[in-house]
Amino acid sequence: MRKTLSVILITKNEEDRVARCLQSVQDLADEIIVLDSGSTDNTVKICSQYTDNIEITDWPGFGKQKQRALDKASCDWVLSIDADEELDEEMRSEINRLLESTDDRHVAYRLPWGVTIHGKTLKHGRSARSVLRLAVNKGSKYTLDEVHETIVPPNGSIGVMKGLLLHYTHRDFGHALQKSSSYAWLGSQKYFRKNKKSYGLFLALLRAIWTFIHIYIFRLGFLDGSIGFIVAMTYAQGKFNKYAGLWLLQQKEKRERKKE
Question: Which candidate, 32, 36, 43, places its Cα nearest to that of 8?
Fold first, then answer.
């Protein structure tokens, strides 16, 4: 008997790209669940062309919002996808094959990312990795992190799908800068909540330099040409901003303690 698939998606103001995402999963999904956190454009209207399982919610953070969506899933397997992503044809075929098979070797699958930035699909650097997005529903849960959340499947083997999860991560360079700074600040708050130490601004600078070297040199980001250089620099800047933000939060906490 064919296994069933829930596709979960969280959105806010994604009218320019959510249709492409949903088109790539509509033939695979037995249900599509959308949680929208207050879009002011046509995102909800577009989503309603693919599913009537749409809920308007507040915004509690990435991890908590995705857990809300996961709680609504009723199928055997769950695929978490973002509005700026789509499955390529090979990956659609692979997921369909999984649903039709009796293969129970794995409880989850990593999907190779095809990060596409400024018209180029990156093959190296930090973008050349696989993300855990497909898992059995029963026993799976999300980490409740503000950002860089991940699904945690039940104990078992994790496989890797063939094909690509195409990820159109930035609309333009301005969006890239905005997204990097937003994620860095969320990361600062996440680390502060978890009592992680910053160890000062000089170490924040060293972390940034190492991030650039790691991505551009050791992970062969230079083979992605000029775009690979820009991406490595963006990651390095984001790393510095995250730890600088953490340092500032810790300095603020110290000042407040002195006033008590």
Answer: 32
